[in-house]
Amino acid sequence: MTESSFKMVMVRMKTKFYEGEHPSALSAFNQMINVAKGKQIVVFLDYDGTLSPIVSDPECAFMSDQMREAVRNVSNCFPTAIISGRSREKVFDFVKLNTLYYSGSHGMDTMGPALKNNSYDINYQRRSVDKEGNEFIVFQPAQDFLPAVKKILIEVTKRTQHIQGVAIEDNRFCLSVHYRHVKDEDYGRLEEEVKLVLANNPDFHMTRGKKVLEIRPSIKWNKGDALKYLLETLGYHKSSDVFPIYIGDDRTDEDAFKVIKERGQGYPIIVSSTPRDTVALHSLRNPSEVQLFLDRLSRWGSDNATTNHQ
Ligand SMILES: O=P(O)(O)OC[C@H]1O[C@H](O[C@H]2O[C@H](CO)[C@@H](O)[C@H](O)[C@H]2O)[C@H](O)[C@@H](O)[C@@H]1O
After folding, report:
1. Hey, which pathway is this one from (predicted)?
2. 250 alpha carbon to ligand 1 midpoint, in Å?
3. Nearest residue CA, atom 6 of ligand 1?
């Protein structure tokens, strides 16, 4: 056997094992939904790589009209939120639906229901009203870091401007340093520059995503915390009958998967076409499969009105 055919056999074996451990949420749909029957489903969605395919220009990560329709239909049946690494405003610009809750900056900027007396720090919450007059609460636990993020944006842009292909994205409470178009031989220099910026700003740390280095404030807050926050403000925090479904493709989504696993109820679903290290229980291969899953979920939701939300 040649080296390349051996590698192919290994990939196939790994894929088979992965699919055994993380069955397709499409094939397992009926079993999944049987477990959720009679419970309040709440849907959480990541954006990039989940609702839109990964593309080379982050500014062009548009979702299709069909996907928008699928998300709209799901949100008409169940409370639905998008939790993204992007800024909240940018995700809204892509999604353009008023029937959802939005959480940006990896959960550090959440616009959720206006529940009075939630257990979170009042100093980081403010009331907001949308164009239709609906009241929300915006929770920004990293608010104190905003001036420093702005300073770091200037510093990191200056330090990396001589490296061809770098694109810096301002995600409000965190920054994305994209290197998809950086030459392999320049990557080391880029990482070095980002690390130097962090050395000057010890209250921040770096995480890694898909061809992106992310600079984030070092507070104990991630997508999993945003999921908990939204469940509480939706009024489901203590309910044993709530059933969160979270669909995401990135490492940062693992924090939300863990929260669902710890709750012991709900489904963490990973979007990946290749085997991945994950705590998710089910898988979908790509955004097209996510759309099929959402379509089935909303069809089931509208046929089973007892679990629907107002
Ligand atoms: O939490 P997410 O909604 O998945 O956001 C994570 C990052 O997604 C975006 O970057 C990724 O998608 C881009 C468009 O497909 C792609 O060009 C890039 O290489 C990927 O890393 C977004 O631009 C980042 O700011 C988000 O943090």
Report:
1. Glycan biosynthesis; trehalose biosynthesis
2. 9
3. 85
